[in-house]
Amino acid sequence: MSTEQARRIAVHAQALDGTARGVLETVRRLGFLQLDPIAAVATPQELVLWSRLGPHDRGELDRLLWEERSLVEWNAYLYPAEDLPVLRALMGRQDRALDRRIEAWLKEHASFRRYVLRELEARGPLLSREIEDHKPQKREAHRWWGERKMGLMLSVLNGRGDVAVVGRRGKQRVWDLAERWYPPVEKLSLREALHIRDEQRFRALGVRLVRGKLVAHPDADDSPMPAGRITFLSPFDQLIHDRARLEALWGFHYRLEMYVPAAKREYGYYVLPILKGDRLLGRIEPVHDRKARVLRVNGLWWEPGAKPVSLDRPLKSLARFLGATLGQAQLS
Known about the structure:
This protein is α+β, with helices and mostly antiparallel strands. It is 36% helix and 19% strand.
């Protein structure tokens, strides 16, 4: 398989060829959406969907999650609800060092765990802040979870399948007992679940590196790429998430620089790769000014040897999706 074939297969598999139809179908094709609160333009999950669907109803994800329950949130990812048998098997895994550390932590904080589960059973669904401190639990500073560590306990219990995210109030997660949210599902062994997940991800990627060689999925689509389609990719997009695979297929070195000091950034704070057909032509840094409801471009960088193209259409599409107007300074 040539690199050119691998690029076509990867773009087709990721529904970046213009064939995506609807939010739920797209999530099913991709297998999952990664969640992240950072939204210099829009959240990663919204950008991933826009890259494939263009402007669409931004409330559709919430409807599918909390009303229809066709999607489930687990461990900062969204999955199709039909994948629950696989997810439930993964929630109980004990085969990694991380799993053993988590179990040891839960045993150390057993009374804290029981308290949180009792509170949810009696009063749930609840926000983290609506659960009072567990009296024996001492407050200690923590970089990510704060002094109470309530968010940490809830996230650990979510990972282990004891509690579920059942809604959101603003950006805050609403928690309840998993048994009250997840429907009964077929029980799978961990081995079966890992096999299914591996097959799903291979199919969604279309091509992967195996011992240094590019291998295509048996069902891969290698048809000609539609000409002229241009979009921008979230830093969390599956097409570019594996940086080694990204460089092997496109020779495109990419890193997210939002944690890099401004003076040391090569490009910008939240830069998006530009995809035209199956080619990565450059990078762009759009910024959504929510107060002014304007989409602006802070920077634009073309790859060496790439022919610059007009970005008017994808920028106008992104602005429409965000409900913003488009700044006129940098449109090409």
